[in-house]
From TrEMBL:
SMART domains: REC. The gene is cheY. SUPFAM superfamilies: CheY-like (SSF52172). Residues 1-105 form the Response regulatory domain. Transmembrane segments: none annotated. Keywords: Phosphoprotein. This is Chemotaxis protein CheY. InterPro entries: Bact_response_regulator (IPR050595), CheY-like_superfamily (IPR011006), Sig_transdc_resp-reg_receiver (IPR001789). One of its GO terms (biological process) is phosphorelay signal transduction system. Gene3D superfamilies: 3.40.50.2300. The modification 4-aspartylphosphate is found at residue 37.
Length: 112
């Protein structure tokens, strides 16, 4: 649903299933933003993905937006410690997410 929403608003979207795929692509391709769930299939959750992206110089400044069903204080704090830029709890307001993505002007995006 999120892929379709963001894609329909004119953004190019690349979807992946696992955290390992997300890291692999983010390190190879210049993305404007990463939309990341915390609960992922495989061995790596979204907290770990976020932390690994933050620890790599090429993705350190990349905006990482968490979109998760986890809406508790501990999850939000863990995401913040991992380096998340923003946090949207499901169900979220799609227009609010699109406005946020749109606010990431090219001049403010990390060089990649």
């Amino acid at each position: 649903m999120i892929e379709a929403l963001v894609g329909a608003s004119g953004h190019e979207v690349t979807g992946v299933r696992t955290g390992a795929e997300a890291i692999e692509l983010a390190l190879k391709e210049p993305y404007d933003v990463v939309l990341l769930d915390l609960m992922l299939p495989g061995t790596m959750d979204g907290f770990e993905v976020c932390g690994r992206l933050r620890s790599d110089p090429s993705t350190k400044a990349l905006p990482i937006v968490i979109i998760s069903a986890l809406d508790d204080k501990e999850s939000r704090e863990r995401a913040e410690r991992a380096g998340a830029t923003a946090y949207y709890a499901k169900p979220f307001r799609p227009l609010e997410l699109l406005e946020y993505i749109g606010s990431l002007e090219p001049a403010n995006r990390p060089a990649g």
